[in-house]
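Pilot study result, target chain (198 residues):
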Amino acid sequence: MDNMAEEKVADDGSIRRWRVMMLVILLRVLALFATAAAAVVMALSKESRTFAVPTSGNTPAKITMTAKFQYSPANIMFVITNGVATLHNLLMLSLMCFVNNKYDFKGLRFITVTALDMVTVAVLSGAATTVAFMGELARNGNSHTHWNKVCDKFERYCDLGSGAVLASYIGILLFMLVNLVNIFERGRFNPYKNPISA
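Predicted structure:
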């Protein structure tokens, strides 16, 4: 009778672990798509406009100006960070799907993955916040420092940048959820404590 109870607890634990693993994989895939979308949208954001500049003569000169993500170091950092987060997610998904748990040496894999996820969240949130600040400055300007608005002239460029920042924040949220699920489930299914001995 005790053996049947132990087998049922073990079966319930393995089913729960499988469900948690599927949830983590789903969250990682969604985070991968969010960070990849943020990197691609920001990297492809470019807009050109032609402006008439008054001159001393009768005909104004026409100047074509282009807004690109490469013109701001914050945007470059944003693209690189989201690209690295995408690659990190791809690597973690590969580890989850193709590497067996028998290579986990006393929980070192869990600690390493969790630490890397937290570092990715920190760097990603720093880059996204910096670009959000620069976007606010571009959208509204700053009268105290005489920074003029840019988004009233390059609306499409600013809208693409806003969408990229939103996608990056969604990726950050999904990374945080992955961390929470992993940490809570690691405490529940600790392989070094005996769940049946009670």
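One observation from the pilot: The mean pLDDT is 82. A full batch analysis is planned for the follow-on phase.
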